[in-house]
Amino acid sequence: MEIIDLTVQTDHIHLFVSSPPKHAPSLLANWLKGISSRKYNHRYASSDEQKIKWARGYYAGTAGEVSSETVQDYIQRQAAET
Questions:
Q1: How far apart, in Å, do the first and last CA atoms of the chain sit?
Q2: What local confidence, expressed as pLDDT, does residue 82 receive?
Q3: Engineering a disulfide at 25: which of 6, 55, 60, 69 sits with its beta carbon 3.0 to 4.6 angstroms away?
Q4: Which pLDDT belongs to residue 49?
Q5: Helix (H, G, I), strand (E, B) or coil at 13
Q6: Which domain, by its residues, includes 70?
Q7: Any idea where the Transposase IS200-like domain is (predicted)?
Q8: What is the rounded distance in angstroms from the CA atom of residue 50 to the CA atom of residue 56?
Q9: For residue 22, what pLDDT is reported?
Q10: Are 5 and 78 in contact (CB under 8 A)?
Q11: Residue 52 forms part of a structural domain
Q12: Residue 7 lies in a domain
């Protein structure tokens, strides 16, 4: 899997990833959520901040009829709007 682009917003994250078809989007979403929450919670374990807990849902789409440049442009525009 390769993360091509990402934008972190206050209530969600946009990720543009490339992955072989053998990896189901649901498994990728769970994997990314699990690793990121463990790293975040480990880093801020001693602070007063609340531990991160991801929502169960996610959205996954394909870029089959859309160029990767279009998807990256969308993600970058989302970052500029925050």
A1: 27
A2: 59
A3: 60
A4: 66
A5: strand
A6: 2-44+57-81
A7: 1-78
A8: 18
A9: 92
A10: no
A11: no
A12: yes
Rounded Cα–Cα distance for residues 11 and 28 (Å): 19
| pTM greater than 0.90 (yes/no) | no
For the chain, 82 residues long, give each residue's pLDDT as a single digit of tens.
898 888 887 777 888 888 888 999 889 988 988 888 888 888 877 766 677 777 777 778 776 677 778 878 877 887 776 5
pLDDT in the model for residue 70: 81
Taking CB atoms within 8 Å and a gap of at least 24, the contacts of 55-61 are 58/25, 58/26, 58/29, 58/33, 60/25, 60/26, 60/28, 60/29
Say which residue the tokens 């390769």 belong to.
2
Residue 27 belongs to a domain: yes
Give the rounded distance of the alpha carbon of 4 from its chain centre.
11
In 3D, which of 70, 49, 48 has the Cα closest to residue 61?
A: 70
What is d(CA 82, CA 70) in angstroms, rounded to the nearest whole number?
19
Structural domains counted in the chain: 1
Q: What are 1's two structure tokens?
A: 């899997």
